[in-house]
C-alpha cells in the first residue's frame, strides 16, 4: 500500500465547489426550489372494503369535479385529472411555492370484481369518494361446517 500525502485544502475546495453548485441549482438562476412541481404529483388515496363494496377516497383539493375523470376497465379503476396553476402575479413576489400542479393519472387494481354499472362517485371538500359495489359472486359467503 502506498502512502499518499493528505492535502486538506484540496478536499475543502472540492467540498466548497460542490456546495456552490448545489446552492446555484436550487436558488440560482434556475431556481428549482422555488418553482411549482408541475406534473409531479399524485393524489393520496385510501382503499377500504366492506362485505358489500369497495370504497376509494382520493384527496384532490382545489379541483372542480368536472376536471376529474373516472373509468374502470376490468378490475383496474383509473382516476385522471389536471390541477391548473393559479398564476395571476401582478404585484406578488413568491418566496416559497409548495402546492403541486399538473396532470395526474392514478390506477388502482381492485381486490375483487365490482359491478361497473352501479359505481357512484361524489366530491365534497376536496375529497373524491368512489363507491364500487361488489358483484354477487365476489361477496364472501359463509360455509357451514357440519360436525359428525
Key phrases:
about 150 residues, three-stranded antiparallel β-sheet, elongated
* Beta strands, count: 7
**Secondary-structure content class:** alpha+beta
Q: Please report the number of helical segments.
A: 1
Spatial extent as radius of gyration: 26 Å
Mean pLDDT over the full residue set? 82
Oligomeric state as shown: single chain
In terms of per-residue confidence, which ranges show pLDDT below 50 for 5 or more consecutive residues?
A: none
Task: Give the helix/strand layout.
Elements: H1 8-27, E1 45-49, E2 53-59, E3 68-73, E4 76-83, E5 102-109, E6 120-124, E7 127-133
Antiparallel strand pairs: 1-2, 2-7, 3-4, 4-5, 6-7
Could you describe the 3D structure shown?
The protein has 148 residues and is of the alpha+beta class. It contains one helix and seven strands, in the order αβββββββ. Strands 1-2-7-6 form a four-stranded antiparallel sheet, with no helix packed on it. The model has no long low-confidence stretch (mean pLDDT 82).
Quick summary:
Helices cover 14% and strands 31% of the residues. With 148 residues, the protein is of the alpha+beta class. Strand 3 and strand 4 (76-83) form a beta hairpin.
Amino acid at each position: 500500500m502506498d502512502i499518499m500525502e493528505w492535502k486538506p485544502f484540496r478536499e475543502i475546495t472540492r467540498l466548497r465547489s460542490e456546495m456552490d453548485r448545489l446552492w446555484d441549482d436550487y436558488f440560482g438562476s434556475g431556481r428549482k426550489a422555488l418553482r411549482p412541481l408541475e406534473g409531479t404529483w399524485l393524489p393520496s388515496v385510501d382503499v377500504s372494503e366492506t362485505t358489500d363494496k369497495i370504497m376509494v377516497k382520493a384527496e384532490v383539493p382545489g379541483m372542480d369535479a368536472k376536471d376529474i375523470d373516472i373509468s374502470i376497465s376490468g378490475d383496474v379503476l383509473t382516476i385522471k385529472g389536471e390541477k391548473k396553476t393559479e398564476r395571476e402575479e401582478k404585484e406578488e413576489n413568491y418566496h416559497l411555492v409548495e402546492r403541486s400542479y399538473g396532470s395526474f393519472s392514478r390506477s388502482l387494481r381492485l381486490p375483487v370484481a365490482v359491478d361497473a354499472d352501479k359505481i357512484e362517485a361524489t366530491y365534497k371538500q376536496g375529497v373524491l369518494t368512489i363507491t364500487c359495489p361488489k358483484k354477487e359472486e365476489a361477496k364472501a359467503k359463509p360455509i357451514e361446517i357440519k360436525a359428525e
